[in-house]
Amino acid sequence: MTNSDFEISSSDSAYEIKWEGDFAPASLREKTAVEEFWATAAAASSGKLRNDPLLTMSHFASDGTTTRIKAKRTQYMHYYAAWRNPALGIVLESVAVSGVILMGDASLLVARRGEKVSHYPGCFEFTPSGGIDGLAMKADGSVDFKGQLIREFEEETGIGKDAIVAIEPFSMIHDKPGRVYDICSLMRISEGSSSIIPRLQTGEEYSEFAAVPIVNIRDFIAENEFIPTAESMVEILFRGRMIC
Question: What's the CATH code of the domain at 228?
Fold first, then answer.
């Protein structure tokens, strides 16, 4: 993985997302190819692959303060087929959220991804993270990405949303190999690591959790295998004095 595999698409502190309709295959031939590829993959997954909607990028623009994103609702089968089978010629990139949890004792929460996950198995990352799903897409076309981040926080940590003091967006990073645009936010929570870490449960998604003091996070990233965007996220936070 090299620096050319990802780029900082925006360093704005505000993001507005609108979803405008559904993605549709360009032709009957493309639709059939996707359905056949999906049927094979879904059968082999023993029920782990689900064709839920997610958000994919259409266009974005920044005015220097706010990044405005236009996106489409896309069935996961189309995104999965486009990602796993580039020969189909379909270009779909998801819009996702990533949080950097800053705990009350000035430490950051990191987690090692399980060996069976589809993206970056065995790598450390900041948590929570996830694609934007149908629950975040409102009937008026708006997208509640912070609500998505809160749900991911509750699902991945088992901790209630009342622990969150603030959610502060700080960048959008384009992970090209992963075909993801990640809206990144600092999540300030009231509790310290001595209270948080013992309550976290490992499983298929995460095999390990750790609390890393802010002063040590650069060394920790250098000494461990992280997802490729982690270093950029930390440097943006330091540069903006959101952590120090």
Answer: 3.90.79.10
